[in-house]
Amino acid sequence: MEKQEKLNALKKELEMANLPLKNSANLVFGEGDINCAVMFVGEAPGFNEDIQKRPFVGRAGQLLDECIKAIGWKRADVYITNIVKRRPPENRDPLPEEIEAYKPYLARQIEIINPKIIATLGRFSMNYFLPFAKISKDHGKIFEAAGRTIFPLYHPAAALRATAVMNELKDDFKKLPDVAAGKPVFKPPVQTPTPKREEKPLQTKLF
């Protein structure tokens, strides 16, 4: 079977499977270039994604599109999906049992598409591949897991809530072309100003 046929069969299987959230939300399978070098993996669909049945189409998705465009790529150049394929109620975080239920389907989706790099969006997605990683410490670094290159990024939704996270997300995105090209990526050392040495006043001689 060709890649697209395998993905279509997997999507149909997901639609039929008795999985968490099946009766409360639409299936959001994923979209993009199935022959991509970079695959983005988020945590779960939100309100707009549930309505349109497409991943990352709300405000967070608009920011993701901007970041992709800023490095000279197009959304159509990559593949975008989530671990959990249906929206949790009220956009809450996915529960551990929901993640576990959908994990095997993401694993097969990745196996079919076979991307060179998986760029994770947010801590839930990162911890799927790197269970002991910390997003605040490990974003923008290159890891190897299960024979694949993993590049953790902040979730765009988190960037919309904090300017510092927004800046770090954009800086990390700038590294993606080099990561895709197999070039080493280093985080520059933090430059701290050298404190000035206080000079003691000269004492006046009495004699």
Account of the 3D structure:
Residues 187-196 and 198-202 have low confidence and may be disordered. It contains nine helices and six strands; from the N terminus they run H-E-E-H-H-E-H-E-H-H-E-E-H-H-H. Strand 5 and strand 6 form a beta hairpin. It has one domain: Uracil-DNA Glycosylase, subunit E. The protein is an alpha/beta fold. The chain has a six-stranded mixed β-sheet.
Per-chain topology:
Elements lengths: L2 H14 L14 E2 L5 E5 L4 H6 L6 H12 L8 E4 L13 H18 L3 E5 L1 H7 L5 H4 L4 E3 L2 E6 L2 H4 L3 H11 L2 H5 L27
Parallel strand pairs: 2-3, 2-4, 4-6
Antiparallel strand pairs: 1-3, 5-6
Helix pairs in contact: 1-4
Summed up:
The chain has 9 helices and 6 strands. It is of the alpha/beta class.
Task: Supply database-style keywords.
207 residues; alpha/beta; Uracil-DNA Glycosylase, subunit E; six-stranded mixed β-sheet; 9 helices; 39% helix; 12% strand
